[in-house]
Structure formats: C-alpha cells, structure tokens
Amino acid sequence: MRRKRAFLILVFFLAILPGFSAFAKTIDEDTLYYYGLNGIYHYNGNGSTKCNVSNGSNQNYAGVSVWSEAELSAIEENQAIYEEAADQYGFPWQVLAVLHSMETGLRRYNPANGQGVYQLFSYTDGGSNENSFAPGAVSEEEFRRQTLLAAELISSRVGDLNDADNVKKLFFSFNGQSAKYIQKALDMGFSLAEAQNGEGSVYVMNRYDAERDPTSTEMSSAWLGRYTADGVYTEGSTSMVFGAYVKYEALYGSSFCSDAGGSIVETALLISWDGHGHSKDDPKPEYVEAMKEAGTYFDPCRSSGDCAPKGASCDIFVSTVMRYSGSDPSFPATGPGVQENYMRSNTDKYMQVDASDVSDLEPGDILVTTENGRHIYLYLGDGMQASASYNERTGEHFSGVYLSDSGTGSGTRHYNVYRRIN
Fold this sequence. Notes:
Elements: H1 2-16, H2 29-37, H3 69-89, H4 94-104, E1 109-110, H5 121-124, E2 136-137, H6 140-155, H7 164-175, H8 179-187, H9 192-197, H10 202-205, E3 226-229, E4 232-234, H11 244-252, H12 260-271, E5 273-274, H13 285-294, H14 314-324, H15 336-345, E6 350-353, E7 366-369, E8 376-381, E9 384-389, E10 393-399, E11 404-407, E12 411-420
Parallel strand pairs: 5-10
Antiparallel strand pairs: 1-2, 3-4, 6-12, 7-8, 7-12, 8-9, 9-10, 11-12
Helix pairs in contact: 1-2, 3-4, 3-6, 4-11, 12-14, 13-14
C-alpha cells in the first residue's frame, strides 16, 4: 500500500510540472518508488538538461535584489513571446529576456540607430543595411518577429545555450569581446578559456561576486576600468549595473533544475548500470551519449601513459553527471583532486558538509577522498551510490555508502562531502 501511494503521489507531481512529458520514457514502478522516497519530482527519461522550471531567486551573491518589480512585470508581459522563440531553438527563454533588458531596457521600441529591440549589430551592419529597423515604438507582432529573429541568430552563435559557459560567452560576444576585458580576467586569476567566456567583462559579470562588485570592500583592484562609450575605455571607472549573467542567474537560477540534488540523482541513475559486473569496456549507451553531449568523451591518461577506456574513470563519471544534468556545466573533468579544489573554491555553488555518519548525507552529495589513491563518487540516497573505477569498471549504481574505505595500495582513505546548493 505504501508503494502504491508513493507511486500515485509521484505521478501527480510529474503531471503538474510545466513542460513535462509524462510518457517520455517507460519507468518501472520500483524506480518510481525510489524517486518518490528521495523527492525526485522532475524526472525526464530522455536525459534532457532543460527542466523547464525557473528557480531564480532574484538575488545576487550578496542577497541584493537584481530585478525591480517593474522589470519583472515587463518580463512577465513579454514572457510568452520569449518562450515561443527560445523553444524553437532549445535554449532557456531567460537569455532573450536578459538581452532585451541589457540592450533596450525591456521596451518594445526601436532606437534611432536602426539595430532594433535586441541591437542586432551584425545583422543590420550597424543599422545601415536593408535589414535595419525603423525607429520608434513597435507592435506586439513586430516585437514577436524581432524576438524570433534574435533567437535564430543567437542559437548558433556560441553553441548549446543550456551550457552556462556558453551563456556567458554569448553575452560577451554580444557586447564585443574586448581584449581589455580578457586581460582583466587573466589579471584576476581566471584561465584563458574563462577569460574568453567573459569572466572579465563588466557587461557580463559585474556584481557577480565580491571581487567584481564595486559596492563591496573586497572588490579586486583589477576590476577597475570599463568601456563608458563605444571605443572609449575609462581607467578606474566602475558601474552599479548588474552584469548580464548576474541578471540571468537571478532570473533563471544558478542551476538548471529546480532541485540540484534531484537532477544529479536522476541523471546518475539514467546513465549508470544497475548493479555490479560491467567492465571498463561496457559503458551504458545512455552514458556514452551523455559523455558526448557533456564534452567528457575522451580517454583520461595518467603520466605513465596508460589510458582508461571511455567512461571507466570515477572523475569522468561524476563530471558527466554534473554537466549532463545541468547541475554544473562547468564541473571539471580531470582528477578528483582538481574536482575537490573546484568545489572548495566555488562556495556560491557548493558547501562542504560536516558528515560524521552516512545519516548526515543527502541525495546528490559528492564524496571525494583526501589522500593519495583518490576516488570520487555520488550518493543517491537510501544507502546507494553511483560511481566508476579507473580502468576497471564503467558507471554503475549499487548499495554501499561509506565515509572511509581501504584504498587499493594506499591504506584507509577518508572522504570529504560536498553538496551542490541552488
């Protein structure tokens, strides 16, 4: 009776979620019961990273409101058109809302420069060719036409916009990928790839964290300086305007699903085999597909030159789950040590959990060893884990969760616990 009740409750939650296809994939009752026990209410059998749920908090890292009530009202008025356009190309509608806000303040109005509501510079050749838009107020139908056009143009500009890095890169390219902003990011310690995504751009990242917030006493001196007009860079200048990506996260949420733990668990179950016995050469087909989409489909090699088959490595498995689920598209794919440093450093995304017993864990928690012979795995809840093993076995889920174990040739290994926070 308990199982039947949990099943019915879960089906009810699935049925009421917006955009959910209840019959995307046949799910057996035991799996549904497991999801019911662990609070997973937005399962997508196709493994989509888009949950169609907006969980924006409307706050930045410091708890400051990003969008005004008037702006939120304007967004709500335009939302159906944003959604129609974005859905055609499979990316979050909030991208369009942010661009509309940054370029013309959410108005249905063409500025005098001929570049339209979304300031489509290249498409209009700076407002000088036959594609230019006549200045003045636009009708709802014209606003819809421009929004559909903007969605088409940006959909292929930087790649999959369900990837957070690509969202940043899009905003950066929209404003002009200035070499000064790239150097600013490098000066602040970001990698070249991160700099090219726009981490140093005021247009993209202003007020994202304390180091890039002029209202904070902890702002980095390297953050000073910005473009105050086209081609005019003013040393020492700052802005109080929230960056485009800050607005995006505040509207959409810092993770791509409404429950980071749930999305991690459901994806781990989807791409891993049920139980032991699957060798390094036997990845689940869903796992192979996920690796290809997540950018983790490669042979991780050690310094000795030996390479694990695709997917037969604990760090690749966890990275694939985090990226493919949309819980963290930027999660590193190499080495448990690198992955732990990433989680420890990104306190806006992860918290370290003081776990003295398995009962302190929550579904979706990430456990990583602190010693040599490192290992990383995912806790699924109900005494289960999902993991892979370097050059030995592919992704599997099974019973058995521990905070310490006997590592191969390395004595007892102890695990730190990290939790993805929304």
